[in-house]
Amino acid sequence: MCDASGDPFASVARPERHFAGGSVEYVGETVFALRPADPVDDLDGVVTDTLGTERYVAGDWFDLPATVYFVHDTVTGDVLRVGVRADRIDLHALPDTGVATLRALTERIDRTAETAFDVEPIATPE
Asked: What does pTM read for this prediction?
């Protein structure tokens, strides 16, 4: 599901942010699944090592059944969520998460894992 350029990040719509009653609500969801081309034993370690670089400020603040990081890219100023599953890494784009941020994080994950990751949009706004 890429645009004509072959860039999976280029043409996917972002969720919409609504403010109501002092809270934030997102309509829709945009998630990109990164699946390694070659087997990777420790995807959580790949994400931890990638986010440990000076470009990112990240934290796993919640006790959830799966690892979820809230990530701030200090170069672009963008924020996104990164989830780790058994067989993939999910990038949850927020309304203001730019293509450059998604692409840069994916490239760093590729380098950290020493393998390429296929990127597939798996959820889009309704």
From this structure: 0.83
